[in-house]
Amino acid sequence: MTDQGKTLTNEAGGRERRVPVLDQGFIALEDWMGGDAAVVRGARICYQSTSKSPEADVRLIRSELRRKPSVNTIFEHAVMRWYVRCPIFVARQWMRHRICTFNEKSLRYCTAERSYYVPSGLPDIEAYRAHMEASFDLYERLVAEGWRKEQARAVLGTGVYTEFIWTVNAWSFMNWLSKRADKAAQWEHRQYALAAFRLWREVMPITAAAFAEEVWRPLAGEGEALV
Amino acid sequence: MTDQGKTLTNEAGGRERRVPVLDQGFIALEDWMGGDAAVVRGARICYQSTSKSPEADVRLIRSELRRKPSVNTIFEHAVMRWYVRCPIFVARQWMRHRICTFNEKSLRYCTAERSYYVPSGLPDIEAYRAHMEASFDLYERLVAEGWRKEQARAVLGTGVYTEFIWTVNAWSFMNWLSKRADKAAQWEHRQYALAAFRLWREVMPITAAAFAEEVWRPLAGEGEALV
Amino acid sequence: MTDQGKTLTNEAGGRERRVPVLDQGFIALEDWMGGDAAVVRGARICYQSTSKSPEADVRLIRSELRRKPSVNTIFEHAVMRWYVRCPIFVARQWMRHRICTFNEKSLRYCTAERSYYVPSGLPDIEAYRAHMEASFDLYERLVAEGWRKEQARAVLGTGVYTEFIWTVNAWSFMNWLSKRADKAAQWEHRQYALAAFRLWREVMPITAAAFAEEVWRPLAGEGEALV
Amino acid sequence: MTDQGKTLTNEAGGRERRVPVLDQGFIALEDWMGGDAAVVRGARICYQSTSKSPEADVRLIRSELRRKPSVNTIFEHAVMRWYVRCPIFVARQWMRHRICTFNEKSLRYCTAERSYYVPSGLPDIEAYRAHMEASFDLYERLVAEGWRKEQARAVLGTGVYTEFIWTVNAWSFMNWLSKRADKAAQWEHRQYALAAFRLWREVMPITAAAFAEEVWRPLAGEGEALV
């Protein structure tokens, strides 16, 4: 098992691997550490074993993901930093996850940018758009009249876009993935989860394939592929 | 050290200890465990010592809070459950704290209630009010026309009230308190922190007094009393 | 759903509910908060629903424990404090669990007590005993000759008993339980898990029964009852 | 700010940066992510600011570490994986830290290696050595006679060496450092903390210098340099 994936990603450049999600959002994998090799390292130190072949590593990772009860720590040595732009209502769900770190654009210090999510295929989109524009008009007027930005944001709907970075280990990431890629998740959040899965699969191909097979398929059923 | 505080609080009844905050919000201490006695228990098991007097317990707690580097675990055996109603923009800051548990009213499943924060002493309050009313009018219309509630909430501003319960240990609570009661915190969030401090002081009087003296005063300076 | 269980336990007194485990160990439930009622509170605030009957609460808790992916936060408002005496090799496994708080008797500050685990049904027990006694003899001699206690403990085997308190929420407790009551766990640790399950069942009967049915049985198979 | 540090370390090779500690132990920095640049990234996304000069980044990191109350999340995007060999009594203290991940050589599955810590400058070292050798003799005999390895380890003292990998973010690492490099820490643990500081300074020079100045010096006093 080599660090080949990492080299490839670094050549492509962090920000360039930005995938558009929804009408004005995106998700990007900014940096990562360890990858599949770190999972193997975590497992093999327990048993003081050495890798005999790439196939043995694949079998090891799959059997660890299938194991019940799980041994989650070995998946926590692989870490990723994501850069996300999404509606506030998606960010609010996202930030309920706790085994990870967020830093978000602050509307206490920054002026909100006129950018909001517009769903498609729904009635009355024009009334929606007009209201969102009116909320930015009012926001700007209140700030001009002396409201603090942190107070004026009260008029901005949760459909407004925000952005944040998210550092998360692979175990906690898989927990998020299994909840937010789930059919029961909100459709908008799910689009981020599916996009994140595809990016993740490039840097941790063995773990991602094992996750799809051993964790995702039993949850979602045959008809619901992850990709 | 006795569990007297607990008995008194239980007699008063959890929900009754609700303190109003802002125009339509509140904070309540719903349940708690351990109190000052749990802090002493945590410290004394390390040293296998026994309490010689109430004064010795007071000195112990104060010296532990003053100690640098800190020994935080002994404060984690005291746990509280709070019930909070606050604007979404306050809740968003609050839920960035991770060593604790939240469960919040869901706007995926529940219809939003027409209730929003109105600041005082600011210009253009009527335009603000009119906009917030219009956002609820539009929300209700969109839901009636077939938008999912989870999508229609995109038009509701972060000044709308939400509610949640919050279970947190005393160490993590003090971390929140020192950040959110701070002069640099948003004024609206600070009102919740100050109200929480007053309720907390009733059930953990020794730790609360030690916190005010050993942690808060060095941070805030003489002129900024906690209460 | 009432807090009846709590009253009963408190009447019995915390420390009295100490259950012997292994030859000289024990586990006791010292304090607890919330219980089954806190799980229901956590679930119902999300949906803003009210409890229609005790049977509805039982169904709610069972369905939440069965749900995949899980909604763990609602189980985190129930918190317990345990008091444990066990061999160091068991404590080392126990303290790998991180979503909880430990305070342990310190062998930096306290002199080790001559108390060690003796397994039964194994050959050469007398040689084992003689060695453990010799290690305490040497420990005491080294301390008398000026070794710091924290250094002299290097000669004490991991079969020596330690004691600690452990504050943990019900979700993290169930995670520990499913790993340490498992057939694959070390036998000695398993005895603590089984004893803890029985004590837990007295204060959170609905959640404990649901756990045995929905989590434990699928893991362990029919033949392996929890009790 | 560039990722120059990372390239240099990778050229040197992870395992090669192993520093001996105590008589038979070591600490190595196996992998790392983000570095000083990740701290700057975390801070600048909040304010949507851009770096004007390397000096501005240095000032930013120093002022963030000095700030009270602290904004710890920005330091959590920098992550490291360490490889450690130390006595069990040191590992037991280390693993009380919870915001991080450990995987340790398992004495359930692996046979213990005859390797133990021998302090220097203390009386009766030969009696100590003889006892440690005797404990391994007995361990091997018990295993040969049918004790499980997980039971036979009961005779091995906490001075026996273990090894583990440790993945930790820079904030949690600094917390460990301020506790374990402290004069009040056990001397043996302190040697690992001081060695780790020196390795860390190579990959996060700006944050390490700011830590030494803003966090360490106020704790330790002028006379106690970190290096």
Could you characterize what this model shows?
4 copies of one chain form a homotetramer. Helices cover 48% and strands 16% of the residues of chain A. Chain A has a domain of 148 residues: Gyrase A, domain 2, CATH 3.30.1360. In chain A, helix 3 packs parallel to helix 9 and helix 8 runs antiparallel to helix 9. With 227 residues, chain A is of the alpha+beta class. The relative contact order of chain A is 0.18. The interface between B and C is medium-sized, with 32 and 32 residues.
In short:
By secondary structure, chain A is of the alpha+beta class. The first copy, chain A, has nine helices and five strands; from the N terminus they run αββααβαβααβααα.
Task: Provide keyphrases for this structure.
alpha+beta; 48% helix; disordered N terminus; 9 helices; Gyrase A, domain 2; homotetramer; elongated; 227 residues
What is the helix/strand order of chain A? Answer: HEEHHEHEHHEHHH
CATH architecture of the domain at 17-105 and 162-220 in chain A: 2-Layer Sandwich
CATH C-level class of the domain at 17-105 and 162-220 in chain A: Alpha Beta
Radius of gyration of chain A in whole Å, from Cα? 20 Å
Low-confidence stretches of chain A: 1-15
What structural class do helix, strand and pairing data of chain A support? alpha+beta
Largest interchain contact: A-B, 40 and 40 residues
Strand order of the largest sheet of chain A: 1-2-3-5-4
So how many helices of chain A? 9
Q: Please identify the oligomeric state.
A: homotetramer
**How many β-strand stretches of chain A?**
5
First and last CA, distance of chain A: 25 Å
Q: Give the mean pLDDT of chain A.
A: 91
Shape by Cα distribution of chain A: elongated
Range of strand content of chain A: 15-25%
